[in-house]
Amino acid sequence: MSPATAIGSPLSLPIAIDLAAHDDFEAWRDHARSLLRARIPPGQVIWNEPGQYGDLLASASGATFSEKRIHITVSRDFLELGEKVICHNDSARFALLYRLLWRHQQHPRLLQDVADADVRRAQAMAKEVRRDIHKMRAFVRFRLVEEGKGEERYVAWFEPEHHIIRANVRFFVDRFANMRWSILTPDLSIHWDGALLSETAGATARDAPQGDPVEDMWTRYYASIFNPARVKVGAMLKEMPRRYWKNMPETAIVPSLIAGARARESAMIAAGEDVFPTQFPESLGKVAEEIAACRRCSIGCKGTRAVSGDGALDGGVMVIGEQPGDEEEKAGKPFVGPAGQLLNRYLDEADIDRGTLYVTNAVKHFKFEPRGPRRIHQRPTAGEIDTCRFWLDAERSILKPRTIVALGASAARAVLGRTPSVQNERGRPIALPGGTQLWITVHPSFLLRAADTIQKREKENFLADWVKIREAAFPPMV
Ligand code: URA
Description:
Elements: E1 15-18, H1 25-37, E2 45-48, H2 56-59, H3 76-85, H4 93-106, H5 117-139, E3 143-148, E4 151-157, H6 165-175, E5 181-184, E6 188-192, E7 197-201, H7 215-225, H8 233-239, H9 254-259, H10 261-271, H11 284-293, E8 310-311, E9 317-321, H12 326-331, H13 338-349, E10 358-361, E11 368-371, E12 374-377, H14 382-399, E13 403-407, H15 409-416, H16 422-425, E14 430-431, E15 437-441, H17 444-449, H18 452-473
């Protein structure tokens, strides 16, 4: 006998299936198998989502139907497609999947027929669901909430288009394993306490926190680096649809920035741009404190120790690496591991005292992938570098270095706002607004990894870059 709830006979009357969840593919599959074994054709089945018709049909139910032992064919492709389609918000999805499964028994290659209307609809639904999953990963913004007794929780509000929360939850658990967090959505809220996941009912935007103390500063900063000359509204809307903006602090000001873009552009050209119009925290100590608490990108959210800059405050030269490595994270200081030791050697050879430099990184948290007991370095993305640029600009606004040395493309991006070709732009100063000179050279770990055939030449070039930097930044006293 079937686990499904049926009304009437299998011969002609409709069969109502009451689903307990919107997104449970396994449960749908159990029902679909029973229906298939009872040879109930798709046109005879009514699929009820939770809350769809109240208990109207369910209350009339109770009949059962008998199943035959038949072999059911299900391809891996169908399962993969079904797991996505089930998350769509179209109430026709359950019927569509059953129709496909039914037809699939006669035509095992059905899913390859891209001209078939059912196949096309299912693929389009799967695509929309994948897109929604991606948007949630990109646009969820956590805000810190103090829960008392020193406990902290990061809470985000998100409004998905489809039923994707459970399908996406593993991503957030893996990414933010060390944090306690909650994602509130209208249909369902999920909570992670560092070890266990739990679910509660849906929430409203008012249940989520509305901002944190640095947020105002962050918003002003975003306004200051917004380049009106580069606004491509169509591309922006495609990548970041307007419906997500309201939950992202940095986008709250985008509409007014776009509206004023043209006027701002002319004013910028006429007046020359202020180097740092934003008000940053007033001391490096305060900046370091805020960096330690920063969870604005997924690297920071892992909760590892942040590494702020370190070194001379009045030497006028700032050296920027990519991000702290394993040893730097443990020591809490930049460039103390193998790359740092190599850097020290070349500084010595170029006759530069590292004690006269302020050394920092483009990204302040260590991005890695655990591999057994080891933590393997992972490159930060352009988005992560751009997010962390707020902190580098805070260091720059306080120290006002005359010379900046960017070690590698990530560091250069953090200064220029674009990723340059290091080999094309190295070895000569680049003038920055405010009179600062930027020098770009390779990252020392590039030398550690370089093939034997180019290593000698690359080492010579690296030393030559540092000699030029010394001549420009520390001219001899006469
Ligand atoms: N590599 C970097 O870019 N920065 C460090 O601090 C260490 C290694």
